[in-house]
């Protein structure tokens, strides 16, 4: 895997990343750090990438488990250290999974497998951050919340 990150100019703190697959991503700093707030901060991109990584896993695992999954959102809430390096110290993942007749134990297993075995990003961040997760299942047939569960730290 490869990525090239370029500072876009002398004014501001905007950077453009070109990924190995040929996609572009823009990042910017906060105004108090010389940025112009034109794009997400680099650490926001790290958090978003982690959410994408784990949601991808959960959908794949649910499909392979024969579940009729029709939607998967994950909201990540994090805390960072007060001093440099300002690493993530806590990350909570809340999954909202939509589908038809989804089994709570299968959803919980998919989330656990992602966090324990498959999601490279969350496994890396687990080195500095306490990881917790919760989930809810929304049944597409009745549009009601079937299950809401919370798990403790993954460490």
Can you give a write-up of this model?
There is one protein chain. The chain is α+β, with helices and mostly antiparallel strands. The chain folds into 2 domains: 1-40; 41-142, GMP Synthetase, Chain A, domain 3 (2-Layer Sandwich). It has 3 helices and 7 strands. The protein has helices at residues 42-64, 104-118, 120-125, and strands spanning 3-7, 15-19, 24-27, 68-80, 88-100, 130-139, 144-151. The chain has a 4-stranded mixed β-sheet, with helices on one face. A 3-stranded antiparallel β-sheet has the order 1-2-3, with no helix packed on it. It is elongated and about 55 Å long. The relative contact order is 0.14. InterPro entries: KH_dom-like_a/b, OsmC/Ohr_fam, OsmC/Ohrsf.
Question: Which bin fits the share of residues in helices?
Answer: 25-40%
Order of adjacent strands in the largest pleated sheet? 4-5-6-7
Q: Which outline best applies?
A: elongated
Give the strand content: 35-45%
CATH fold description of the largest domain: GMP Synthetase, Chain A, domain 3
Q: Which secondary-structure class do the elements indicate?
A: alpha+beta
Radius of gyration from the alpha-carbon trace, in angstroms: 18 Å
Mean pLDDT: 93
Terminal Cα span: 28 Å
Query: What would you say the CATH architecture of the largest domain is?
Result: 2-Layer Sandwich
Strand count, sense and barrel status of the largest sheet are: 4 strands, mixed
Question: Regarding CATH, which class of the largest domain?
Answer: Alpha Beta
Domain count, please report it: 2
Full CATH superfamily name of the largest domain: K homology (KH) domain
Counting DSSP E segments of at least 2 residues, the number of strands comes to 7
How many helix segments? 3
Low-pLDDT sequence parts: none
Following the backbone from N to C, one meets helices and strands in this order, namely: EEEHEEHHEE
